[in-house]
DNA sequence: AATGATATGTTATACTATTACATTTTCAAA
DNA sequence: TTTGAAAATGTAATAGTATAACATATCATT
């Protein structure tokens, strides 16, 4: 069972390039923030970047296990949590799955577009200052720390494939 | 363990009134859309309304079991899915929990504000036409069917309680 | 080298959700 | 009003997701 899909933002792109550049970005981030870029953590980020899809924690764990890392759930969850904390991996709540960030700029607000036709997950960005969510929260006096924005529907390709 | 919280929208309100009026709204909706308002379903909605919090499916199930309804998970999940489909219950993805809708007007776009201090879940609304999420999606040619908007942070009370 | 903090590995368990199938209830057509 | 199909319920079994607790190992300083 693997309902997680591609994250290609509905476009072709140079995948090899985005993997290496994302890894470099991770390295400099860790150096800068004095975070430890350990083998498990590095491998988890690589797997997510290579796979280029939303992956369940147990999918990631299978990879780690096969490569001689620890084989129990906490191994995967800890590395995933590390990257989520660092902002280089996002959790797609609706899928209970994790995806490497494709817009690794600080302070961005990801919007995940989940296609129910092909299970692709594309990451877009929303302007935080110009958003109904922020307005609703500030109207209530609520101080936002994290935001979840996910939409489900049909990507351009699947709209053509399915008539209605 | 019960991390789910209140849904009072951070204000006092007339709770007894909102329960009965929400039930009436449910009755007319079911009559109008020819949905079957069965005992389990009614009871599940009542429980969510009375409790006035985000509840896990198993919390709801415990109530049903204690009242002589079926005791297995599908009993709760089916009734919850029924109401989610009808739009009178929402799932809070970040909590894996369900909450009765407090803005039962058709076509609204809920925004859930989850306080990490007191576990309260308040439902606000966002203008669907005026949103960064919709803009990001339409820029990508994505056709939205459902939207998840959730924020986590501190409610007004908890902001005062915790200095930083 | 000693020490304290951080990270890893494992066991066990808790929590969330669905599949599959038997039974009952409902509703409408004959 | 019977009856037959569809919908709803009940249960058992299992799948999928996540964390607590604790032992061991590694790292970054003294």
Please summarize what this structure is.
With 164 residues, chain A is an alpha+beta fold. Helix content of chain A is 43%, strand content 19%. Chain A is globular.
Strand content of chain A: 15-25%
Cα-atom radius of gyration of chain A: 17 Å
Calculate the mean pLDDT score of chain A and round it.
89
- N-end to C-end Cα span of chain A: 27 Å
Strand order of the largest sheet of chain A: 4-3-5
Strand pairing plus helix content of chain A: what structural class? Answer: alpha+beta
Kindly state the number of beta strands of chain A: 5
Helical content of chain A (DSSP H or I, runs of 4+)? 40-55%
- Using the alpha-carbon principal axes, give the shape of chain A: globular
Order of helices and strands of chain A: HHHHEEEEHEH
Largest sheet geometry of chain A: 3 strands, mixed
Which stretches of chain A of 5+ consecutive residues score pLDDT under 50?
A: none
Number of helices of chain A: 6
Q: Name the pair of protein chains with the most residues at their interface, and give those residue counts.
A: A-B, 41 and 41 residues
Oligomeric status of the shown chains?
A: homodimer
